[in-house]
Amino acid sequence: MEGAEGNVYVLRKTYPNEEAARRAAAARWQQLQRGAAEFSITLARGRADLYPEMHGTVSGFKSDIDNQDWIISRIEHVIDDSGFTTRLELEAKIADWIAERATTG
């Protein structure tokens, strides 16, 4: 098992060996430590200046979403017949004191 003691998160995929399963568990644990919420959006007008791990905010949504510090976890720029668009996958950055409390129990 990877991570901290307490709650158990079950990976649903079956892995070919123990090492692959441990790597997947460690990667998921790091992802859970980085963010508690996820949000994705496609921008009608592409933004080539955006890149992964960049911090940002959004507006025009519920206040809980608008007031959150987001990190771009994945980005895809597309140029097609519709023009230039950007698809963002964002993760909420959890407060340091929450992450510390979760790992120390």
Automatic annotation (TrEMBL):
It comes from the Bacteria. This is Putative phage late gene regulator. It comes from Escherichia coli. The lineage of its organism: Bacteria, Pseudomonadati, Pseudomonadota, Gammaproteobacteria, Enterobacterales.
